[in-house]
Amino acid sequence: xxxxxxxxxxxxxxxxxxxxxxxxxxxxxxxxxxxxxxxxxxxxxxxxxxxxxxxxxxxxxxx
Length: 63
Description:
Elements: H1 4-26, E1 30-32, E2 35-37, H2 43-62
Antiparallel strand pairs: 1-2
Helix pairs in contact: 1-2
């Protein structure tokens, strides 16, 4: 790959998406301050982040 930064960002996005998927699978409760974060909120990163990671990987391979 000619653009290692895009590769690293792509890998990071996959890791974060997998962490959110694990949160959904194991139903881990998360609280920010005194506010509980609902599980459904983790569905967004599980869908969006792998898509962005694939697009970045394709962009890194393109040139």
